[in-house]
Write a structure and sequence with these properties.
By secondary structure, the protein is mainly α. It is built from 13 helices and two strands, in the order αααααααααβαβααα. Strands 1-2 form a two-stranded antiparallel ribbon. It starts with a helix and ends in a 10-residue tail after the last helix.
Length: about 350
């Protein structure tokens, strides 16, 4: 009799198990190791607080490409940050819903895990705080995070990924921001010809080497280190965006000496990221170098490098051509492949 009762108990226990009990199953969500290239700076301090995980990154990439983030379901993050263009869009200024023109050129989003500032004016210090900007900006997605959540909260695929990434199906703004940042932290570009030369796997051509030498003499003070930016903000006398909303770094600090100063952009993958400048003032690298050679706009806060050299960086035609040859060695063909 005891055996029969015991057997019935087991049957009852098994029968009571439903699909809901799958929540009790432990989900393995391992951290993704970020391979820090030799010579790169330390990771941004916030990375350790939001370490990329297998499902966090998968979720972030899915959110990054979801057009439901925009009010009319036509624009996603990946609409402007296109991988084959090193996560830029080849437009002078970003284009949002209904063809609205944004204030600035779309910046590349490579090696963000090592950056201290985000956006052209450094308005964000933490990558997790950045995604809300395009979501709510009138010229970009013109939506709200609550509207986005309302659109995706009943999506089975999202429920599954949020559960795997964060332990439950509850979709919150914080989880959205964290997962997008996790995905972006993994976008590390460090396998260009330049990197292979550094690893002694190949060598520069004669013109590339000459360009590198010119770069060291005339460019490296701003485009410093392995990120090819010193992450400073400078007014280098580029043509000024006449939009009254533009003030460069001064929009953030309110300091007049920061007027029309912008974060020094990385030169990595620059071959893919034309046009150049904060609002795409220059269509080619040649036109940028010609502008430096001919003379930039004067300003009270013009960077001392230009002030001290008569508002220009003199370059011969050979130096320009060789510089461009060198800059093309910073192209990471694997990074831009879909």
């Amino acid at each position: 009799m005891k055996k029969i009762i015991s057997f019935l108990s087991i049957l009852v226990l098994l029968a009571s198990c439903t699909n809901d009990d799958s929540d009790l199953i432990s989900i393995v969500n391992p951290e993704i190791e970020l391979n820090i290239p030799s010579g790169f700076p330390e990771l941004n301090a916030f990375v350790s607080q939001n370490k990329p995980t297998k499902y966090g990154v998968e979720l972030g990439e899915k959110l990054f490409s979801d057009k439901r983030f925009s009010a009319d379901n036509t624009i996603s993050c990946s609409s402007c940050h296109i991988q084959e263009h090193a996560f830029t869009d080849q437009k002078s200024q970003a284009v949002g819903i209904e063809g609205r023109i944004g204030l600035r050129n779309t910046p590349s989003i490579q090696n963000l895990a090592f950056m201290k500032f985000y956006n052209w004016d450094g308005s964000k210090l933490q990558l997790e705080n950045q995604p809300l900007v395009p979501i709510i900006t009138h010229e970009e997605m013109n939506s709200s995070i609550l509207e986005v959540i309302g659109k995706i909260k009943d999506d089975p695929a999202y429920k599954d990924l949020f559960r795997k990434a964060f332990g439950d199906e509850n979709i919150t703004p914080d989880k959205i921001y964290k997962s997008i940042a996790q995905f972006e932290y993994t976008l590390i570009s460090a396998n260009s010809k330049y990197d292979k030369v550094k690893r002694k796997e190949t060598a520069f051509s004669e013109n590339e080497l000459k360009g590198y030498q010119t770069f060291q003499q005339k460019c490296a003070s701003c485009h410093a280190g392995e990120l090819f930016t010193d992450q400073s903000f400078r007014n280098i006398g580029f043509p000024i965006n006449t939009d009254t909303n533009e003030a460069g770094r001064a929009r953030v600090t309110g300091i007049s000496s920061d007027f029309m100063s912008f974060r020094v952009p990385t030169l990595r993958n620059i071959e893919y990221t034309a046009p150049y400048g904060s609002f795409g003032q220059f269509s080619t690298l040649e036109s940028v170098l010609d502008y430096f050679d001919n003379g930039v706009l004067d300003a009270d806060n013009l960077d001392p490098i230009f002030k001290e050299k008569g508002k220009k960086i003199p370059l011969t035609e050979d130096e320009k051509n060789n510089l461009i040859d060198f800059m093309k060695t910073l192209s990471d063909t694997e990074f831009v492949k879909n």
